[in-house]
Amino acid sequence: MLGFIENLIGKKKLLDKREIPDLKGSLFSIYLELLSREKGKKIVFIPSSSLKKEALKGDLNIPEFPQFSLTSTLLEPHIKTKTDYYDAYFRFFLKKEGIAIANPCFFLLPLPYLSENFFEIKTYQELNPEKLKLFLSKTGYTQTDIVREAGEYAFRGNIIDFFPYNSELPLRIEIDFDEVESIKMFDPFSQKSVKLENNAAIYPIFALPDSEENIKTLKNKLKKLFPSEHLKISLKEKYEQLEKHKLKDFFYLSLSLMEDRFEEFFENTLFVFENKKEFYERIICIKNEIERLYKEETKSGYLALPYEGIFRSIEKLDKFLEDKSIEINPSNTDLISSEPPIIKGKIGEIANFIKEKLNEKCKVILSSPNEFYLKKSEEFLFENSIPFSKEEDNDGVTLTISKYKNHFALSNSIVFLSYPSLFPEKKREKKKARFSSFFSDFSDIKKGDYVVHIEYGISRYLGTKT
User: Fold this and answer.
1) Phi and psi of 179, rounded to 5°?
2) What is the largest CA-CA distance in the chain?
3) Main-chain dihedrals φ then ψ at residue 398, nearest 5 degrees
4) What three-state secondary structure class fits 301?
5) What is the spatial distance between Cα 144 and Cα 54, in angstroms, rounded to a whole number?
6) In the prediction, which pLDDT does 429 show?
7) β-strand 337-338 against 152-156: which pairing, if any?
8) Does position 239 have pLDDT exceeding 50, yes or no?
């Protein structure tokens, strides 16, 4: 149904240009999908603002390589940032999704081969429990008796529990003769199953698999990066941290120990910049800040990430992106688009706007994500005496089903509207889940757990006396 919009993009030869107009709303999503399909290439969009990025994610549900705080003195990003990075890596490189978003900091990081750091499980597939146990241990998961928190796993006979950071709830796998019988989400409080799944993907905690060899290599890397005598105390602390927590807190350094495959992974990729000049200004600013912080912190006896030996050369990056870049230019008039002035939820005003556009001989498209919303669209148009049809050639509103959610108008000749965006439903407050107590008896309480004492209030459990 939206083929004529794709044809219009083709007629304007936007797919062959390195500079494109600022395509509004879902028109930009349609362009990126068409570009990927027609050119047979993957697409990476580099935003300069959140507006276009959020619209694109709303339409296509694409992965996003997150923004890292590279100027931090810490050697480890937040666990959510790491999980988002792994999610984008898994979906874009392993599941072969065609379009992704990448923030500027991502382009400075090494991009190694991490495929072996992910574990996929499907029902009725063969699964060696020992192989899964080894994977969980090597990638940073902690073995416990009962799984309550993210990053833990437990083996009990033919049942394996684990809580990946990329899952809202822990997962329970039942194995029968080395075959996955079921995959279920379960409540970490009551330990009861709440949802059946067909498959599961486990993301790593460590970027580098845990081994004595890798720990030794990382120690040598630290020693090489921080040779100064006055850094010995801080370096010793990092060595102790390595021995205690293994590779948990060394994400950036772990990436730098592996071969950078950036150019190989992105060889068949086009990079679409919302503002290329701003992109380079941003990464140069980050580079300068990293170098400044490194000098100041190391001078004071603390460790900070150096730029050389960890991050990618900007000159090398620029050379690689040179013939793979497409840039949005707001002054380009090859295809003029705009965002219609729609007031959400105002039935009368929306109906009048549509009637006005039809009177102006504009082609009005009203999109719905499914049959339910298509029916509501028909009811709305019928009640407001607006002609409509599911056929493309008609004098009224053209109804269609599509995933696109963001309005746009083309040169006062085409207006694309999305029913759910016109009439957003009020968000209902979620009822708090009624979880059972943390434990069923005292055997479930571990020393050090917080408890509420009937006489003394909140306390730490130290054991029982008889």
Assistant:
1) -125, 135
2) 88
3) -95, 120
4) coil
5) 39
6) 55
7) unpaired
8) yes
Under a CB-based contact definition with an 8 Å cutoff, are residues 75 and 250 in contact? yes
List Cβ<8 Å contacts ≥24 apart for 186-191.
Answer: 186/161, 187/433, 187/435, 187/436, 188/147, 188/148, 188/149, 188/163, 189/148, 189/435, 189/436, 189/437, 189/438, 190/435, 190/436, 191/146
- Which residues make beta-bridge pairs with 337? 410
Q: Do the Cβ atoms of 199 and 191 come closer than 8 Å?
A: no
At 259, list the tokens: 């071969």
Distance CA(193)–CA(185), nearest Å, equals 6
Which percentage of the chain shows pLDDT scores above 90? 64
pLDDT, tens digit (0-9, with 9 covering 90-100), for 62-100: 999 998 877 665 667 888 899 999 999 999 999 999 999
d(CA 362, CA 364): 6
Contact at 8 Å (CB) between 386 and 396? yes
The pair of three-digit structure tokens given for residue 424, joined into one six-digit string: 């957003």
Query: Please, where are the H alpha helices in 2-49?
Result: 3-11, 26-39
> 347-359 and 371-383 helices cross at what angle (nearest 10)?
80
